[in-house]
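Colleagues,

For the teaching module next term, I've prepared a clean inverse folding example: a structure given as tokens, and then the sequence designed for it. I'd like students to try predicting residues themselves before seeing the answer, so please don't circulate the second half yet.
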């Protein structure tokens, strides 16, 4: 195997993962860095040999990879989310798609100067938004109420719809340009019949093949006919088989098949799909990185001579005119408020499906429209970059301005609502931090509500938990269940909502009580409160003369100095700085500064003797007279 090929493969993987890591670190849309990395490594600096990316393997790999991505998106779609929202969703993927296609095609025709056929095709390609962009934005924003579910369903389902539409438009173009085909009204009739036939085949094939593949997986796993380590390989194999089978019947029907297969698995109750979902999510991250690097590295610098300022104008029209018009017409007569409609009108970034379909179609169109085919790919890629940049960088602020989300959620979800947890949560709530408690024990939930705390009775491991909770303003997960195994499962289950850096877990018992390493690090959240305490220890402290205190610092103070002032048994818990929250965990925490408020657990007598002027009891949050140690 040529060394250049191996080098190219290795570099693609490094750039794909590295760009996404940098995007996470700097809080930027990952697609922007992926496209820039691929463009620089390919046509600009030539680090990746274009010949490596021109083989026959590219398009089958791209197609199947997109199918896997859409399957993972389908696993996130639960039918229970459609209650009261099905109208807007169906309108967006029908009326909205039609408006976006036709008005977008008109904009391409007038601005880019493409012919009618190529404009209609470009408009169809630009219909898709894409879960690879929408889902990360929604996870970051966490919009309030139903609008998040509507945006998620549209972002995932519109990809296969748009891809099938673009494919049918392409086939009609070939049909009408075939010298042997009929002209005039007969040709138009043939084209219409061809579209209807193609749509019918795509829908029927997707439902039958996708449903059959999902049924085989459920039956096999439910009857335990394969071992656990083969669950994910079996699912991936059947997914690829179903995708290829649908593609054989109708081009691009594989995307709809993969999406419906994921939806079917996500909404059955016979077997859990958490492990499958985690595997596909990890695979999706890798595939997205590879796909964007591969497709952008294949670009030719010469093709960008076809685009210029007019493409920037096209991007502006798509953002300011086409998308708002599509949302307005789709949501007319629905129960969505003007704020929710405005949010949807400012959320239509294009993603990997648009890039892949444009690259594939440009190759197919070389014979019919050589110059237009050359311009198609750079125009679509610039639209992707422009829409991702505009929406990705501004939507958090738009959501905040519309009062639909908190741009920097500092709230805490407590999994477990025992009395000692309630006292800690109540203190945070009085300090202005949003809190939410979840527990399966009805007595715990009732007592928490009596304290004025928002609490829900739910099984944290249930599939429906993600639909039942309102996580507006919640950015951190604190698991305080006195069972390490269940707590670790909860951390894994909720990792699709919370970043791993924001998942914290309190051990049932401290390491010195039952030995270190009870739960492997990769199967749990970060250890809470310095990793030196446990659920049992905090419960015991609360039962024996300990209380939650809030200390307003006058000087920078370390954790050790806090324990020295309030006693070795004191447990620093949180640092509140203005409206932000920091958590003492097993990792080093930012040192508290003057003006910060430290929430800690301390012995009642010791706290009142050694506290400084601004020491408050969590249950009362009332200041006491000045006096006490100068160390703080």
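(Answer key — instructors only)
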């Amino acid at each position: 195997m040529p060394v250049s090929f191996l080098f190219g493969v290795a570099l693609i993987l490094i750039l794909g993962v590295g760009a996404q890591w940098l995007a996470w670190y700097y809080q930027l849309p990952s697609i922007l860095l992926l496209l820039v990395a691929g463009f620089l490594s390919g046509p600009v600096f030539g680090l990746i040999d274009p010949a490596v990316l021109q083989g026959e393997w590219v398009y089958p790999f791209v197609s199947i990879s997109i199918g896997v991505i859409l399957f993972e998106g389908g696993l996130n779609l639960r039918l229970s989310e459609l209650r009261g929202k099905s109208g807007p969703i169906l309108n967006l993927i029908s009326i909205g798609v039609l408006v976006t296609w036709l008005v977008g095609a008109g904009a391409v025709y007038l601005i880019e100067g493409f012919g009618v056929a190529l404009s209609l095709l470009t408009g169809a390609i630009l219909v898709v938004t894409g879960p690879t962009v929408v889902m990360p934005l929604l996870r970051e924003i966490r919009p309030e109420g139903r609008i998040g579910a509507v945006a998620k369903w549209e972002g995932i389902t519109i990809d296969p719809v748009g891809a099938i539409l673009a494919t049918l438009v392409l086939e009609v173009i070939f049909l009408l340009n075939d010298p042997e085909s009929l002209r005039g009204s007969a040709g138009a009739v043939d084209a219409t019949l061809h579209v209807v036939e193609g749509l019918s085949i795509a829908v029927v094939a997707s439902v039958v093949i996708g449903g059959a593949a999902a049924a085989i997986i459920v039956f096999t796993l439910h009857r335990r006919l394969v071992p656990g380590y083969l669950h994910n390989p079996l699912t991936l194999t059947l997914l690829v088989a179903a995708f290829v089978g649908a593609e054989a019947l109708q081009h691009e029907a594989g995307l709809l098949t993969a999406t419906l297969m994921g939806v079917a698995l996500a909404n059955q109750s016979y077997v859990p799909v958490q492990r499958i979902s985690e595997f596909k999510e990890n695979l999706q991250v890798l595939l997205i990185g590879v796909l964007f690097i591969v497709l952008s590295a294949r670009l030719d610098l010469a093709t960008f001579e076809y685009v210029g300022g007019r493409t920037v104008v096209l991007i502006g029209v798509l953002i300011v005119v086409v998308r708002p018009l599509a949302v307005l017409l789709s949501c007319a007569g629905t129960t969505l408020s003007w704020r929710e409609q405005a949010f949807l009108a400012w959320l239509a970034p294009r993603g990997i499906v648009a890039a892949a379909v444009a690259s594939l179609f440009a190759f197919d169109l070389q014979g019919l429209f050589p110059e237009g085919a050359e311009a198609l790919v750079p125009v679509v890629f610039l639209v992707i970059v422009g829409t991702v940049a505009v929406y990705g960088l501004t939507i958090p602020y738009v959501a905040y301005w519309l009062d639909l989300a908190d741009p920097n959620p500092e709230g805490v979800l407590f999994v477990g609502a025992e009395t000692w947890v309630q006292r800690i949560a109540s203190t945070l709530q009085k300090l202005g931090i949003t809190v939410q408690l979840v527990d399966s024990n009805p007595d715990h939930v009732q007592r928490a509500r009596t304290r004025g705390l928002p609490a829900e009775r739910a099984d944290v491991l249930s599939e429906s938990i993600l639909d039942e909770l309102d996580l507006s303003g919640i950015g951190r997960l604190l698991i305080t269940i006195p069972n390490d195994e269940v707590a670790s499962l909860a951390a894994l289950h909720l990792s699709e909502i919370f970043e791993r850096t924001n998942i914290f877990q309190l051990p049932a018992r401290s390491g010195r009580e039952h030995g270190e390493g009870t739960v492997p690090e990769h199967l749990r959240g970060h250890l809470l409160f310095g990793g030196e305490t446990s659920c049992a220890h905090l419960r015991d402290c609360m039962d024996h003369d300990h209380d939650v205190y809030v200390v307003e610092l006058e000087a920078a103070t370390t954790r050790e100095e806090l324990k020295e002032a309030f006693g070795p048994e004191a447990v620093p818990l949180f640092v509140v700085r203005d409206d932000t929250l920091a958590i003492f965990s097993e990792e080093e925490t930012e040192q508290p500064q003057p003006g910060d408020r430290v929430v800690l657990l301390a012995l009642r007598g010791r706290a009142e003797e050694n506290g400084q002027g601004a020491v408050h009891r969590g249950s009362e949050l009332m200041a006491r007279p000045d006096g006490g140690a100068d160390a703080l």
